[in-house]
């Protein structure tokens, strides 16, 4: 019984209520349940993992609905403000939800924080963070570009830092990394419901969370302890079989799905990946797939909890969260007969590498047909710039796979024939690739390591090698390739592919 009388350390009413609920059930609470209730959501937060409460809520909802549930439904419905009375009908009803946390990037956080300040509330009601990644322009290289951005945007950064300190919002300074990589490394956990003021917030689905991009007003509501309203999404199932092999990467899964569903096909739906093929994809690979679900209009995307996620949690110093998740696997995986509104099946063993574009991410081109299609459409054949990184593909794994290709090329005396820009996803990634010699390998190849930020992916790129209006081709491992997005040149033909193919094409 000793575990029932321990004090849950932390601040806030929700932590105390969690303790009271455990104490009320002292006669039946298992040691695992009590232990999970005392595990903090992150090393920066004292609020505990909500697994016990989520399990109670989903039991109520499942009894009401009388059917198996998808993983998406389990995470959403377990976060209902009123699980007993909430109307639940996919595609029709509006859900009132209680997200676990809020994440904001610096371009959208400014207005959100101003609105929160005007509320008069002393502190945010849920764990929240600000990430400075959108205001750093790529010009020369990492250190110089970062110093320039700090000088130009010093008033913005100072406001966000001081407002965050006053109202209890975590602040990740410029250079710390891209919001979604920081979230994956530090804050995401299986079963999380998070809203973020950026469209690629779904990146956290690679760690089993439902992470949804919203506007600043929604973020303010949640920080002010107001239930968040969301139209109950439909659920598109993507069953993965086989195993990735050869040059095929996780990026090719979402490039294939984009070709099937188009840029509007996921609207009003959550894309839920499942099946035996999931286990052949790393956690950061799953994050890549979920991240780019934004390009098909999906509310978010998610993978079920598995051993790959457990390994990632442990490798990022979150052994206690991995142990807690292992105790709640039923909550963090879909039921066997869960119904999907649409089902797509992909055999990873036969999936080809893809190069999507130009001008839209859903124009899917299998690599075997790319040359023929390019010639037919009179696309510029000579590639001018190769770029790897962005929130979609800037993990240590991505950098390492590219470096292995580069080492092979260098061993034959071959370097990149074009400018090759590299964006690490976070300071942790940058420091690790520097430590392991990966960064130097990429520099030896002819690469320029940019600041840990969004950079060219969102148009923060002072490009000098072509004039505006000049027809040219670039290849990236980014997510979007709409007209003029990267360099403000409407004549630039941008193609999206995996980091490995960007590296290989830079040699061609």
From TrEMBL:
The keyword Lyase applies. Its cofactor is [4Fe-4S] cluster. One of its GO terms (biological process) is tricarboxylic acid cycle. It holds the Pfam family Aconitase. Residues 73-508 form the Aconitase/3-isopropylmalate dehydratase large subunit alpha/beta/alpha domain. SUPFAM superfamilies: Aconitase iron-sulfur domain. GO terms for molecular function: 4 iron, 4 sulfur cluster binding; aconitate hydratase activity; metal ion binding. Keywords: Iron, Iron-sulfur, Lyase, Metal-binding. One of its GO terms (cellular component) is cytosol. InterPro entries: Acnase/IPM_dHydase_lsu_aba_1/3, Acoase/IPM_deHydtase_lsu_aba, Aconitase/IPM_isomerase, Aconitase_4Fe-4S_BS, Aconitase_4Fe-4S_dom, Aconitase_dom2, Aconitase_mito-like. NCBIfam families: aconitase_mito. Belongs to the aconitase/IPM isomerase family. This is Aconitate hydratase.
